[in-house]
Write a structure and sequence with these properties.
56% of the residues lie in helices and 0% in strands. It is mainly α. The longest helix has 26 residues. It is found in: Cell membrane.
């Protein structure tokens, strides 16, 4: 532990790995969608089980192209930022917002149909868990220790004059 980093080395390494893993997941999802010309969020949005009118509006012909482009762009940018360790706090906020939209489209609330899921959930699902992981990344930014932001941190060690 040091004054500039109150976390132990093990804690810092664990948080860096969390950041890298979440970043990889976002980047992978963005790349897959980008390279699948027929991919669209339209089906997911139209099958929303909560806030149906809002998600139907996002899936409308006038909006879907922009929604698809923004979704892919956000996934790619969040993933790249988290992996490189640059603007990770902003990337965490954008990622949380995106994941909360996914969560609200198909929330695992009691009495609601499960919709498009990979398993059986009750209130908590993988989108909410990953949003919580991004909150941890936001609260404990590691990019000034391991990432591109380290290049922009002013040294607290006084320089010697010749």
């Amino acid at each position: 532990m040091s004054p500039s980093n109150p976390l132990s080395t093990t804690q810092t390494v664990a948080l860096v790995f969390l950041r890298l893993f979440v970043g990889w997941h976002f980047l992978y999802e963005g790349v897959i969608k980008f390279h699948s010309p027929s991919w669209t969020a339209k089906g997911y949005l139209l099958s929303a089980t909560y806030l149906e009118s809002f998600f139907a509006w996002l899936a409308s012909e006038s909006m879907i192209s922009m929604v698809d482009t923004l979704n892919i762009t956000a996934l790619l940018l969040v993933g790249i930022a988290l992996i490189l360790g640059f603007k990770t706090r902003l990337a965490s906020i954008v990622g949380i917002g995106l994941l909360l939209l996914y969560y609200l489209a198909h929330p695992p609330f009691p009495g609601y149909p499960q919709g498009i899921t990979e398993g059986s959930y009750w209130i908590i699902n993988k989108n909410l868990i990953e949003a919580a992981a991004l909150l941890v990344i936001f609260l404990f930014p590691t990019s000034k220790i391991f990432g591109l932001e380290r290049l922009f941190v002013k040294s607290t060690v006084p320089t010697q004059t010749l």
